[in-house]
Amino acid sequence: MTAMQWETVIGLEIHAQLATRSKIFSGTSTTYGAPPNSQASLIDLGYPGVLPVLNAAAVTMAVKFGLATGCTVAHRCVFARKNYFYPDLPKGYQISQYELPIVHGGRVDVVLEDGSTRSVTIVRAHLEEDAGKSLHEDFAGQSGIDLNRAGTALIEIVSAPDLRSAAEAGAYMRKIHALVRYLEICDGNMQEGSFRCDANVSVRPRGETKLGTRTELKNLNSFRFVERAIEIEAERQVEILEGGGTIVQETRLFDPDRGETRPMRAKEEANDYRYFPDPDLLPVVVDEALIAAVRASLPELPDAKRDRFMRDYRLPAYDAGVLTADKALADFFETVAKGTGAAPKIAANWVMGELTGALNRDGLTIGATRVSALALAALLDKLAAGAISGKIAKEVFEALWTDGSNGEGLVDAIIEKRGLTQISDAASIDKLVAEVIAANPAQVEQFRAGKQQVLGFLVGQVMKASRGKANPQQVNDALRKQLRV
What we know:
By secondary structure, the chain is of the alpha+beta class. It is built from 16 helices and 16 strands. It has helices spanning 42-45, 56-68, 166-182, 223-242, 288-297, 302-312, 317-324, 327-339, 344-362, 373-384, 390-403, 410-417, 426-439, 441-448, 454-465, 472-483, and strands at residues 6-17, 72-73, 76-77, 80-83, 93-96, 103-111, 117-129, 133-135, 144-146, 153-159, 195-205, 215-220, 250-255, 260-266, 276-277, 284-285. A hairpin with an 8-residue loop joins strand 8 and strand 9.
């Protein structure tokens, strides 16, 4: 049996740190980057005699996620103690939800690269507290424990095993990432660990309906790592099964440097955690008034925004999908599109092309852009009016980016200072064309003999002579006119 006859089955458990200012059961700050162990209260550490108090904002955020994904919101949910030992879990248990999560039974539709759609069931999304963080790199032969993160509010989003490839898993994770940022319930910062996932991976012969033995890939904090880890783990399992072996149910770590997964610990089942209702926390009651208030506060979600961009701005599905994958990018585009007389498609091309390219080149997010939406709109107005060529527009964009002052008034100043105004005067262009024709008799004869592609060479010579400032369309028209003489 070859690897092509195997099917990969994947379910993700995504952990999104909620954007609450204090922790889920204490008033301790959640500000990132504080000195180690400076933001861990006695409640977070589970000292005897302390009592947790639920953060109401965390409940509201969980309900918001549930409504946005079509989940059922539980009118009554219960917190449980999940018991296990780990060095960065000082209480010896984690307060989580098990039998009665706050939301369950939703769905997310993911558009794949080939244009097809994969529908992914959200089994549950439950509230819980985060653990601390073990630090291994800075201590020779030892590990350090930073408990600042202990007690931070999380929502764990558990999917059904509906995904069938690493690419599908990456697309689903990106969709959830966009969604929690649109809802403003998580900043989505993967470098800081506020958005990460565990991937449950198994393989089975194609056509088989029974699930294979799964392994869990722990703490994957980038889209690229999720996809690579799943591919590598699936290949490992296929190799074992084709060699006559069996898969051990376990938790594994992904090593991106070695391109391998390796065992971490045996994979626990629910009964291993000895769940029981937390005796210090009352059941949470979510009434219809809260649900209605949260529903009324929902923003325009990514799918609806994508559909609107396609309808109102006549954008292709691909463009609309790229622009709406990030709320800040979508807002930037819309400001440009509304602020310029250029076609929305032109605005989309510049946002996805020049702007995104500059951001990626300099390692910046859209929030740190050096060219404002209004400045880009002003630049596109000049381009649409024929005052500058596309080549000059790119030069002006780079000048704006380098200046970094974000002022739309700079567009005119840069064009004037550098003498970049496009030459659209017919007499001037006719003169340039005549000079190029006179200087290139061989190419002129080739064109007149039927070699049409030579025209591109002659246009290039005129543009070179004008230092890129001649109107390309007028140059093309003038050349054709004079070459017919």
